[in-house]
Amino acid sequence: MNNNLSKSLLRKKFNLIDSPKKPDWIKVKIPSSKINFTKNRLKSNRIVTVCEEAMCPNLSECWEKSHATFMILGDTCTRSCSFCNIHTGKPLPIDPLEPLRIANTVNELNLSHVVITSVDRDDLSDGGAKHFLNTINEIKIKCKNTTIEILTPDFKNKENALQILSNAPIDVFNHNLETVSSLYRSVRPGADYNHSLNILKKIKKLKLKIFTKSGIMIGLGETYDEILNLMDDLREIDVDFITIGQYLRPTMSHHPVLKYHEPSYFSKLYDEAINRGFKLVSSSPFTRSSYHAEDDFNSLKRLS
After folding, report:
1. Hey, is 257 helix, strand or coil?
2. Which of 150, 171, 188, 215 has its CA 20 to 30 A from that of 204?
3. H or E element: which one contains 195?
């Protein structure tokens, strides 16, 4: 079956599945006027953020502190993951001035730690790795003391991508598994669980002093034991930090929420992860990959 047709049928199937009613403790903050400075800086410099594109529930809290996760390589993804609200289609050519605009924005917001992510760019020979490197280097020219965390796509079938990134002055390398292996076909079509693990394994070998990080969403239909097995897989390749958050359905065409987990469940998973030897664990309903990223990075440094 045609891949696009298969995805379309999957979305129609999801549209027929209702999610449970949101519990009272899941509340999204209403944005306040304090975020205007951050918003204006991003808009004037034509910066795309994953905060907006992914409809992050923590946007107002982070933007009040001038924290934002910059999304490079455009706002159109070549993948169509069923949990993600980012637009899928044919991306525009790379903007060679984007790295400079990102660096200027980091400088204007006076960020001491910055997170750079991107859409999947399967159309590029290196998956966009060189553009990551250019962006990182521009930031270091403008803000030499700013620490840098990257949240990367999987660079599937891009043999040179990790070698390029291993030469970048980065402090944290994050690649999210997103979910357990059994759900990849419905949640991350086009991705591969073992390939994603291998990315985290390889970068640790190429860049020995880097912190590695990965995150998952829960409530998609995974079992408790599957989450524990995923933790074991990450610890086997020496991943330092895991984030665990509640999946929230962007629209009715996206993968349904099959369960809203109580905060106590996240606490239980936190204990399991700590017992497995992760240096740092963030596990709560509103945990996201880049949520409190600077504080978490400082904690990693203290713990190492």
Report:
1. coil
2. 188
3. helix 193-206
Using CA atoms, how far residue 93 sits from 62, 69, 104, 116, 255, in Å, is: 30, 21, 21, 19, 30
98 touches 118 (CB < 8 A): no
CA atoms of 230 and 273, how far apart (whole Å) = 10
Which amino acid, one-letter code, is at 251? T
**pLDDT tens-place string over residues 244-256:** 999 988 888 889 9
Structure tokens at 96: 């060679």
Environment class of 27 (CB within 10 Å of its CB; exposed 0-12, middle 13-18, buried 19+): exposed
Q: 268: helix, coil or strand? A: helix
Domains of the chain: 29-303 (3.20.20.70)
- Kindly report, residue by residue over 148-183, the tens digit of the pLDDT: 999 999 999 898 999 999 999 999 999 999 999 999
CA distance 42 to 113: 16
User: Is 225 exposed, middle or buried (CB count within 10 Å of its CB: 0-12, 13-18, 19+)?
Assistant: exposed
Backbone region of residue 75 per phi and psi (left: phi > 0; alpha: psi in -120 to 50; beta: other values): alpha
First to last CA, the chain: 49
Beta bridge partners of 218: 246
